[in-house]
Write a structure and sequence with these properties.
By secondary structure, the protein is of the alpha/beta class. It contains eight helices and six strands. The structure holds uracil (URA).
């Protein structure tokens, strides 16, 4: 396998990240890789920022307080976690839960694209500023959440992938902020409408 653009399956992508020791600094301090989980043929992929403490311990994305809220939002639109695919841009926990650096995000981006190419989702939900700005740079989440944005991303040399990006606030902001929780609820209702079409 000569480049991340040639990785066809989710298992191959995971194996490549481990074998090539991608983002080796974070790999050293994290307990394990948190690659992503869910339906490999999902219509919807959710992308967060990076694993936290609980995710690092369990090797699964969104299993702490934010994950509990994400599960509740999904349940509110009658979607089960197993139906969708959930991952993060950065796949190792940054020490002390600091923000992932631009370099760390850049290192993982080709693998995130490869995951999307393997899954071919109808909608990509970016959770929070970091994830949204990977696809929609320079746009403010407060202005663009809950709207569908069509974008093309180039993978490898000439391969172009069309994506429908649907930005939302990160569930973590809804833990203590009632207004954000209401906005997230409303965006999940919009997402349900989009998926049903
Ligand atoms: N926050 C994230 O962005 N991702 C996780 O997996 C958990 C919390």
């Amino acid at each position: 396998m000569s480049s991340s653009a040639e990785l066809a399956s989710l298992d191959q992508i995971r194996a490549y990240i481990l074998e090539k020791n991608i983002c080796s600094d974070l790999a050293k301090t994290a307990k394990q890789l948190v690659f992503g989980e869910g339906n490999p043929e999902a219509d919807v992929v959710f992308i967060g920022e990076a694993p936290g403490k609980n995710e690092d311990q369990q090797g699964k994305p969104f299993v702490g307080a934010s994950g509990k809220l994400l599960d509740e939002f999904l349940k509110s639109i009658n979607i089960d976690r197993q139906q969708v695919y959930i991952t993060n841009i950065v796949k190792y926990r940054p020490p002390n839960n600091r923000d992932p650096s631009p370099k760390e995000k850049q290192e993982f981006l080709p693998f995130l694209y490869a995951q999307l190419r393997a899954i071919q989702p109808a909608v990509v939900v970016t959770l929070g500023r970091h994830s949204t700005n990977c696809f929609l740079p320079d746009l403010q989440i407060s202005k663009i959440h809950g709207q569908l944005h069509k974008r093309e991303v180039t993978i490898g040399k000439n391969k172009v992938m069309q994506l429908n990006i649907f930005p939302m606030y990160h569930p973590a902001v809804a833990i203590y902020n009632r207004n954000r929780r209401d906005e997230l609820n409303a965006d999940f209702v919009k997402l349900a409408e989009i998926i049903s079409k």
